[in-house]
Design goal:
The complex is a heterodimer of chains A (about 550) and B (about 300).
Chain A (H helix, E strand, L loop, with lengths): L1 H9 L1 H12 L4 E7 L13 H10 L4 E3 L5 E3 L2 E6 L5 E6 L13 H12 L17 H5 L11 E5 L2 E5 L7 H4 L10 H7 L15 E7 L3 E6 L13 E6 L3 H9 L5 E2 L7 H7 L4 E2 L5 E7 L9 H9 L3 H9 L4 E2 L25 H14 L8 E8 L2 H15 L3 E8 L1 H10 L4 E7 L5 H5 L6 E2 L5 E2 L10 H12 L3 H17 L4 E5 L4 E3 L3 E2 L15 E2 L2
Parallel strand pairs in A: 1-10, 1-11, 15-16, 15-17
Antiparallel strand pairs in A: 2-3, 4-5, 5-7, 6-7, 8-9, 9-10, 11-21, 12-21, 13-17, 13-20, 14-20, 18-19, 22-23
Chain B lengths: L1 H28 L13 H10 L6 H13 L14 H36 L4 H15 L2 H15 L14 H30 L2 H8 L4 H30 L2 H7 L5 H10 L2 H29 L7
Helix pairs in contact in B: 1-12, 4-5, 4-7, 4-9, 5-7, 6-7, 6-10, 7-9, 8-9, 9-12, 10-11, 11-12
Classes of the chains: A alpha+beta (about 550), B mainly alpha (about 300).
């Protein structure tokens, strides 16, 4: 300790000013955020690393509570017309940007126009496709912003017109892409408005500093309407992709919260830091796609045999060991607006040996045996866990007469191949954008024919296609009664899963580590935790 | 010498042009692109992104646009990082990379040369054995392991130093990163110095100097040091460029804001703009370092003449 102090004294002169500015804050939260942000512009956000910063610094009409449930944010209330197509939001009194200018209805219009403007090239622009006029505007078919289904009735009232009833609309409004942006700032500075020099925030925090590769720092926003209840004064979002190094820094007391952990050191964490690892299932699925445009994966029986022979308990228990949940359903348990039982198939409760026997019998009936195996390539993106799972599954499949070649590539190359259909079996994963079953089920819709004659399969890499499934999802999209809608979607899920349109393997868990000094943290299924609800004791 | 330097600078231009051109096309040959993600983007959105970065144009047109911008000193946008341009990203990270790289360079070179001389003078005695052992460790142990070990020992168990992170102007935050970065360089420099010093100490003119009664120190300082430094100096150019480009592991373990990581990350992300930007920057650093090394060589070795 003495050496550390001596060093600090020796360098004190150089950093005196910074130290002083640091000591002005009573409570600082040090959050290990993983990778570096690419943007701080809510409309351009695309990854959770950015979400953790942006959700602290900006607020939409709706926000989330500690449990991750949508609650009113910049709006206090809203009215919906009986057809479910028009939402009118009433803005809260006293909401301001961090420079003191009021947040007005126009700022929400500016945000949506910015999100959907093709020049912005926002990756999440499609998330708002349920708002009337959005898809056409983003595709450049309309250049008139007034065709967007949003209106400022007055400074305090925002009205949205939807293209179709969307029961998860208010939940979707918690996504930063739909947040307002400061109109005057945007007009004055263009895309540069979201640089550290110009950025104005309407959330509990405001961005103060960004050192690429090291950290983003925000401070409490005194203009926030609930500032009196915000207990942490300053937040560092630390960039560190090396989880083992992050654990060292956590143990050294430099981090209060880790958003990921080195899985091979979980036992050590649970022994030395009891109760601090927070492993909670999140609404997400890790799955394999079988390319149904390639033989013999067009055969539903083959797909069934492959799914049956995967021992998911070995993968979650022995290979991962982090509490991930074996998955047989496409929609993970606990998803909102999805009343009814979780999908189960008729073999998942059988003993594994029996399943292998049945799967081997199916394969044998198709002419594949361990002596004359089905040869196939399994693609995954380069990652330790993906590799271990692929090796294990290849061994499981060897028992039923399938011989697997493993092929790994970096993420961009992997998904490029999956999109192009250049694979037989491929690994993928999905963490839901918003808490509604349609976000999961829509993946399995048939591809859309493009003007150039190609078919865009979107995220449906396996190219599962069943017109009945598409019709059910269309029907669900129009259904206003949430229970009926859930029933239709359950029917669609059963159809797709009975036909093995994808092979779910497990549902992810969060891998956060939270210091006992932090209170107010609640496990939730959307893996979003706003700093405004946290407090820290020294 | 001035005209030689001028000629060398002129000859850098075609080298730079070839490097930029080769890098531009090789990057495009690699499968995948900057907008291929875990989630497939809808075609309209991908089209918007491609248009925003001129990637909807033909490859030759994109190349011309890039070269045109480069001639105006603009490295263009990053395809992944949206808030900062390539020039801004490199500009923000370069001062730190230079601080880290030069600190490691100066420490490792000084200590390495001294240790090498010591080992040569005490050849096959204990200082020599200690050095050889250290060199083996420095070369064999990968720096990510050293980095994690130091972090654990000095950051977690002893709590003498910060386990990582960046605080502008803070020296304690630099101690471990600089140490890890300098180890391999130090090992190589000391090994080179030891070898060449042993050779020089065995040469005829040193024997003559000793024969006329000069002490070891004077022999070393006046006769042996300059010629023995030659192999070390020729290594310093590549050594420094390695220190400046090879800081990836150190940056990633300690969470530092340098530009070493862009080399790898940008290539993996297919961030064409950032890859080209780092290549251009490092190319100039390396060309300039090589020039400086060649000029220093002339000063050290009277046999070298420039024409």
């Amino acid at each position: 300790m003495r050496i550390k102090q001596a060093f600090q004294v020796s360098s004190a002169a150089g950093v005196a000013a910074l130290m002083l500015s640091g000591s002005a804050f009573a409570v600082t939260l040090n959050l290990h955020n993983g990778g570096d942000a690419r943007t701080l512009d809510p409309n351009k956000e695309s990854v959770n690393v950015e979400d953790r910063i942006i959700s602290d610094c900006f607020e939409g009409l709706m926000t989330i509570d500690p449990k991750g449930e949508p609650v009113p944010g910049q709006a206090t209330s809203f009215d919906v017309t009986p057809d479910g197509l028009t939402y009118t939001f009433h803005l809260r009194d006293g909401i301001m940007w961090s420079d003191g200018t009021p947040v007005v209805a126009q700022d929400f219009l500016t945000g949506l126009e910015h999100l959907e403007n093709p020049k912005t090239a926002a990756e999440y622009a499609y998330l708002a496709n349920f708002i009337a006029g959005v898809a056409d505007y983003n595709a450049g078919k309309s250049t008139d912003p007034s065709t967007l289904g949003i209106k400022a009735l007055d400074d305090k009232t925002v009205q949205y017109t939807l293209a179709s009833p969307t029961p998860y609309f208010t939940a979707a409004l918690t996504h930063p892409s739909l947040y307002p942006i400061p109109t005057a700032d945007y007009k004055a500075n263009g895309e540069d408005w979201a640089s550290v020099d110009h950025i104005l925030c309407n959330g509990p925090y405001q961005i103060k500093e960004w050192v690429p590769g090291s950290y983003v720092r925000s401070e409490k926003n005194a203009k926030y309407y609930d500032a009196a209840n915000v207990k942490i004064d300053e937040v560092y979002y630390h960039v560190l992709e090396d989880n083992a190094a992050a654990l060292n820094r956590y143990r050294a007391g430099e981090f209060d919260i880790m958003t990921d952990l080195p899985t091979d050191q979980l036992a050590l964490i649970q022994k030395e830091l009891p109760g601090q690892a927070r492993l909670t299932p999140i609404i997400s699925v890790y799955y394999y796609m079988l390319n149904e445009l390639k033989k013999p994966f067009d055969d539903v029986e083959i797909r069934k045999a492959l799914s049956m022979a995967i021992n998911r308990d070995v993968i979650t228990g022995d290979i991962l060991g982090t509490g991930d949940v074996a998955a047989y359903s496409w929609v993970p348990p606990g998803v909102a607006n999805y009343q009814g039982a979780v999908y189960t198939n008729d073999w998942q409760t059988l003993p594994y040996e029996e399943r292998v026997k049945q799967a081997a019998a199916i394969m044998a009936s198709k002419g594949y045996t361990p002596e004359n195996p089905l040869k196939a390539t399994l693609r995954y993106n380069t990652n330790d866990n993906h590799r271990r799972i692929a090796v294990a599954i290849a061994a499981m499949w060897a028992q039923i007469g399938v011989q697997i070649d493993l092929l790994n590539a970096e993420t961009g190359v992997h998904y490029d191949a999956l999109s192009a259909g250049d694979f037989e079996i491929g690994r993928a994963g999905w963490i839901m954008d918003y808490n509604d079953a349609s976000n999961m089920l829509d993946i399995l819709r048939s591809g859309q024919k493009q003007p150039d004659g190609t078919i865009n399969w979107g995220n449906n890499y396996g190219r599962y296609s069943n017109p009945k499934f598409d019709a059910l999802m269309d029907q669900a999209a129009k259904e206003l009664d949430l229970v009926k809608r859930a029933g239709i979607m359950h029917e669609a899920e059963k159809l797709a899963m009975d036909e093995y349109g994808a092979v779910p393997i497990y549902d992810y868990v969060t891998k956060w580590v939270v210091s006992p000094k932090i209170s107010g943290y609640e496990d939730n299924a959307v893996e979003r935790h706003l700093t405004r609800y946290l407090s820290k004791s020294e | 010498m001035l005209s030689y330097a001028f000629k060398r600078v002129l000859s850098m231009l075609p080298v730079a042009f070839i490097a930029v051109t080769a890098c531009f096309f090789i990057m495009r040959l690699a499968p995948g692109g900057p907008f291929d993600r875990e989630r497939a983007l809808p075609p309209e959105i991908k089209a918007n992104l491609l248009a925003a970065y001129n990637m909807d144009q033909s490859l030759p047109v994109q190349y011309m646009l890039y070269v045109w911008r480069l001639l105006h000193g603009d490295l263009g946008p990053s395809m992944v990082v949206k808030t900062y341009s390539v020039s801004q990203l490199l500009g923000l990270g370069l001062p730190f990379t230079l601080t880290l790289g030069f600190s490691a360079f100066i420490i490792a070179t000084t200590v390495g040369i001294l240790a090498g001389i010591l080992a040569a003078v005490y050849q096959n005695k204990w200082p020599d054995y200690v050095l050889v052992l250290f060199v083996m460790v420095g070369v064999v142990v990968p720096n990510f392991l050293t980095a994690h070990l130091l972090q654990l020992v000095f950051g977690v168990y002893l709590d003498w130093l910060p386990a990582g992170g960046y605080l502008p102007g803070s020296i304690p935050h630099l101690v471990m990163p600089v140490t890890v970065l300098s180890l391999a360089h130090l090992a190589r420099v000391s090994r080179l110095m030891r070898g060449s010093m042993i050779e020089v100490l065995g040469s005829n003119y040193v024997r003559t100097a000793r024969a006329k009664g000069l002490g070891t120190r004077l022999v070393l300082a006046r006769h042996a040091l300059k010629p023995a430094l030659l192999p070390v100096v020729s290594y310093l150019g590549p050594g420094l460029s390695y220190l400046l480009t090879g800081s990836l592991v150190v940056e990633q373990v300690f969470g530092l804001p340098g530009i070493g990581k862009y080399f790898i990350q940008a290539a993996l992300n297919r961030d064409y703009g950032l890859v080209l930007g780092t290549v251009v920057l490092y190319m100039f650093i390396i060309l300039i370092l090589n020039l400086i090394v060649d000029l220093v060589y002339a000063w050290l070795d009277p046999k070298v003449r420039y024409s």
